[in-house]
Amino acid sequence: MTRWTLPPEQIPSAWFNVVPHLPSPSQPPLHPGTREPVGPDDLAPLFPMSLIEQEVSDEPWIDVPGEVLDILKLWRPTPLQRARRLEQALGTPARIYYKDESVSPSGSHKTNTAVAQAFYNAGEGTKRLTTETGAGQWGTALAFAAAQFGLDLKVYMVRASYGQKPYRRIAIETWGGEVVPSPVDEPDQPGSLGSAISDAVRDCVGRDDTHYALGSVLNHVLLHQTVIGLEAREQLGQAGEGLPDVVVGSCGGGSNLGGITFPFVPDAGVRLVAVEPLSCPTLTQGRYDYDFGDVGGLTPLLPMYTLGHDFVPPSIHAGGLRYHGSSPLVSSLVKDGRMEATAYPQGKVFEAAVRFARTEGRIPAPECGHAVAAAIDEALAAKETGAEKVILFNFSGHGFLDLAAYDDHNHGRLTDEMG
Amino acid sequence: MTRWTLPPEQIPSAWFNVVPHLPSPSQPPLHPGTREPVGPDDLAPLFPMSLIEQEVSDEPWIDVPGEVLDILKLWRPTPLQRARRLEQALGTPARIYYKDESVSPSGSHKTNTAVAQAFYNAGEGTKRLTTETGAGQWGTALAFAAAQFGLDLKVYMVRASYGQKPYRRIAIETWGGEVVPSPVDEPDQPGSLGSAISDAVRDCVGRDDTHYALGSVLNHVLLHQTVIGLEAREQLGQAGEGLPDVVVGSCGGGSNLGGITFPFVPDAGVRLVAVEPLSCPTLTQGRYDYDFGDVGGLTPLLPMYTLGHDFVPPSIHAGGLRYHGSSPLVSSLVKDGRMEATAYPQGKVFEAAVRFARTEGRIPAPECGHAVAAAIDEALAAKETGAEKVILFNFSGHGFLDLAAYDDHNHGRLTDEMG
Question: Do B3 and A406 touch (CB under 8 A)?
Fold first, then answer.
């Protein structure tokens, strides 16, 4: 066997909340003006109350609404695959498993939280959503989800990606969303996730019918992604494995990483590895501090690893990982030594991604390529020692909408410091 | 339930051969010079002997080799989905099911035969393959399969698509294939599948290490696609349905159509519907006759519906359906009244495709959009009569690599006679 599926009724019926399992208590976000902990009322202009409750919850499990399950069933549970052909090509004794989130309608894990956020907003009367998107994985996912609940959507797309990745812009429009390049007021700037968040928050705050939706970083977003790790745990059991030795995920804001790793946090023997781009090394070279989530300083101050909220990373192809900060939950785990972090240069990521495509078939998104590269290195390390290690990584999204990046790689036009 | 999966061990272990079930005996291909039936030796410069044997076989079942199953298991069995959200949007009493072939590594059904053809070629010592591709679904599928068996690959891509669809060219290169626009000798011509076949056959015939691979039309190609219909039959049973009332597939050369419909040919009560583009109306307006498979007149003469081998269809976005002929097996079924044929204009196809994307989530390839449009019309007809009809169609591929076409549609730049 190389592939484990589960029937639709085995989609997890509750999300896993990592907060009670953190080594040290989580610190609250602070109000940007008063520097006091923010309360629900401070967040109400941005989010519906049910998401705010999830954001501050310390309940160990939170039920997934039936209406959300009904939509997740369009593609979930996703398959767990054993990468036997890659193992053979590497000559490793390790067993490599990947959870394939690329089979969602929008092609990445982002759809998991997009559906939940659209559901709660629609239920509380929101008519319109605003959001940011980097490479476009989040924007496409939310466009799909908004269409399911009849919500209008405006997407502020990081200008560097808006030019580089027209296909994701078109996909958003095909699902009915509106897309504009960001920063809206500075047409010469390539932008970043931080500046696009500022644009989307500004658009939202002034309008009663509008809420804002974030595709990563916040607790409730990572919560919705834990279906990935919960399913993978079940499927590893089906495959006859116990716990994995190591779980690997790429990390920008932290959502696919949190999704695959959080359900393994209580298992002390399982190593957890975050993989980020060397050009935006938040966890490996940033400082742990309170900082704004956006460039404009409009969001609450979050306790996290950060490169500074005014840091503008180079225009690498993994646009979804170009974020100055990281999820407070991921940051807390890294700070306390429960999670490791490593950084990869772009060239090495694409070499690994092509190797994966030619053995396992699927072409990874550049973001996802970071996890592929680190999983390959774990397998090669196991070859050195002869250890029959079990490696699990999250195949967070396919690269069909990122092929311009592969064209650069295939024809030698890609550098580690892509401008 | 809205989704039925099968475990990997339930991939069909034998292909279904429709030849013994044809209403009238199949007619042989003729040698282009002598006009006598071609023998195995005539085809040997092009194909390995095991594929030639399959081409002329009248055995009812042909075993799928274990090595082929091992690769198909990377994504098969594919899910059968019930399109409940589309049904609700249409207000139809019909139950619409679609077989989702878009989950393959290259994103379409083409991978099913690509793996089999690469396997048989590698087994008989072929080192290099040549082929044609239209929109690029076939070229990407064969590039993936060739990489699995270490075969070199040269793809002659219809020039209209080469310019319109750079992403599929890049995907082929990422899997290790070489791509050139066709016709190679006429750089001002948009080309067609027929001219690209001529280029690929010419390249093959002169070289001992090289064979040619065709992505549709021929008996052995359609044979390899019957895993689609065989799985769907099993999954409809799981869903509590008996036989479907109607099975719908889009038709260019006929391979995805044959794949989903052939296993239902013996079931007299099941309607079978081929959907083709109005701009290339082979089955609905062509003549049934012997004709060449290619523009250059290099291939054997095939008994089929044809618009004439020198017919150059307009550059519609469904490049995979721009073929002057049709599979002899499909043609025979249409001629004898066992299969219906209908033709759709491009604008109506994209309207249906967007409707599908906004309800069911997945964005269809333009080729696949033809089947979506006809399935919707079947469901609307059922609404008129109140019939609780069961409709099955083949979701043959996703449109992530065809989004430029959606951009034209979304912004009103697409016409029914796209030049």
Answer: no
How many residues does the structure list for chain B? 419
Contact (CB, 8 A) for B50 and B224? no
Other Cβ atoms within 10 Å of A58 Cβ, number: 10
Q: What is the pTM of this model?
A: 0.95
Least Cα distance to B165 among B141, B133, B188 occurs for B133
| Closest C-alpha among A182, A210, A219 to residue A322 | A182
Report CA-CA distances (Å) from B213 to A122, B115, B200, B216, B321: 51, 11, 9, 9, 18
Q: How far is it, in rounded angstroms, from Cα A65 to Cα A35?
A: 34
Selected for mutation to probe chain A from B74, B360, B406 (highest A CB count within 10 Å) is B74
**Neighboring chain B residues of A167 at a CB cutoff of 8 Å:** 167, 400, 403-404
Instruction: Please list, in sequence order, all residues whose beta carbon lies within 8 angstroms of the beta carbon of residue A39, skipping any fewer than 6 positions away.
Output: none
pLDDT tens-place string over residues B231-260: 999 999 999 999 999 999 999 999 999 999
CB proximity B413 to A under 8 Å: no
Neighbours of A29 (CB within 10 A): 23
Mean pLDDT of A268-281: 96
CATH of the structural domain B75-108+222-410, one choice from 3.40.190.10, 3.40.1160.10, 3.40.1190.20, 3.40.50.1100: 3.40.50.1100
Q: Is A14 helix (H, G, I), strand (E, B) or coil?
A: strand
**Dihedral pair phi/psi, residue B301, rounded to 5°:** -80, 130
> What tokens appear for A201 in the block?
């928050």
